[in-house]
Amino acid sequence: MLINGQWAKDFHPVQGTDDEGGFVREPSRFRNWITPDGNPGPTGEGGFTAEPGRYHLYVALICPWASRTLMARKLKGLEEAISVTVLDPRLTEKVWRFGDDMSTLAGTQSDPLYGAEYLYQIYLRAKPDYTGQITVPVLWDKHRETIVNNESSDIIRMFNDGFGNLAKESVDLYPADLRPEIDSVNERLYDNFNNGVYRAGFATTQIAYERAVKEVFDSLDWIDRRLDNQGYLVGNRLTEADVRAFVTLVRFDLAYHGLFKTNLRQLRDYRNITAYIKRIHELPGIADTVSPEHIKTGYYSIRALNPSGIVPVGPC
C-alpha cells in the first residue's frame, strides 16, 4: 500500500481485522460521479460531465468488483464511450501490474495512457500523496487526469444513469419503482455473500471463518429459494442486484469453493442458481466479461492462500 505517496507495504490480502479476527475491507477513497450535466453526484465534487471518449476504465478480470462495472458498461452499450484496460490478474508485491511483451496470459493489456508498469502509478497521478490500498476498478478522467471513482457500486450506477443518451435507454439496472427492493437485496447479500467469501477465505481465526462460511451458505440457500418462482432477483427482470450477485456466483466453484474453503456445497447442488448463472452468462456480451483463466490464475497467485503457486488444471 501507499502512505503519503510512498510505497510502504507490499501486498497482503488482509487489509484489516475486527476484534474476532474477521476480514475488514478498506473503504474506497475516490467517490466522485459522472453526470449528464457535470453537477455533483451523491458524493464528491462536480465537473465530471458525461462525454464520449473522456473516461477510461481500469479492470482486472479476476476481480468481481471490477467485473460488475464491465457488465454494466456492456449492458448499457457504453463500449464506444468508455475505453477499458485489463490488468494482469496475477497479484504482485505491488498489487496490480499492466501487461507487457513478456506477458503470456491472453487478454492482459499494457497501459495505453501513460505507459505505467503498475496501477499504483495511476493512483499517484491522481493524488501524489495518496494513502491507501490499490484496488480495481478505477474510473479515470482523461481530461482532468484524475480518478473519478474507485468504488464499483458507484460506478455501475453512474453507468446506468450518468451518461444520458450515450447509454441504452432500453436497459435500466436501477429502475425507480424497484429501488427499495434492489437496495434491500443488495444489503442482504453484500456482507454475507459478496464480501462473505472474502471474510471466509481471509479469516484469521476459526470463529471468524466458521461464521463467514455459515453466512455464505445461508445466502446461497436464500438466493436459490428466491429463484423458485422468478428468473431474476428483483421484479423478474435483470437489475443491478443480479449484476452484483452474478459476479460472485460465477467465481464460486472456480475459486471460492476450494481456495477460500467455502466448501460445504458447490453451485451445481443448487438447481435454480445453476440455471440463473447460465441465463445471465448467455445475455449478449456478458461472456466477454468472464474469464475462467484469469479468475483461477489470479486467485491462485495469492501466496497467502496458495503458497505453492500452482494453479489447478481444468474446472475446480
Descriptive overview:
The chain has 316 residues and is α+β, with helices and mostly antiparallel strands. The protein folds into two domains: 2-166, Glutaredoxin, CATH 3.40.30; 176-289, Glutathione S-transferase Yfyf (Class Pi), Chain A, domain 2. Helix content is 34%, strand content 9%. It is built from nine helices and eight strands. A four-stranded mixed sheet has the order 4-3-7-8, with helices on both faces. The chain has a two-stranded antiparallel sheet with strand order 1-2. A two-stranded antiparallel sheet has the order 5-6. The model has no long low-confidence stretch (mean pLDDT 94).
Series of secondary-structure elements, N-terminal to C-terminal? EEEHEEEHEEHHHHHHH
Task: Count the domains.
Answer: 2
Structural class assignment: alpha+beta
**So what's the oligomer here?**
single chain
> Could you give me the name of the CATH homologous superfamily of the largest domain?
Glutaredoxin
CATH architecture of the largest domain: 3-Layer(aba) Sandwich
Q: In total, how many beta strands?
A: 8
Residue windows where pLDDT falls under 50 for at least 5 positions: none
Strand order of the largest sheet: 4-3-7-8
Give the end-to-end Cα distance, rounded to a whole number of Å: 31 Å
Number of helices: 9
Provide the helix percentage.
25-40%
CATH fold name of the largest domain:
Glutaredoxin
State which percent range the strand residues make up.
5-15%
Largest sheet: 4 strands, mixed
The CATH class label of the largest domain is Alpha Beta
How would you sum up the global shape?
globular
Rounded to the nearest angstrom, the radius of gyration is: 19 Å
Mean pLDDT: 94
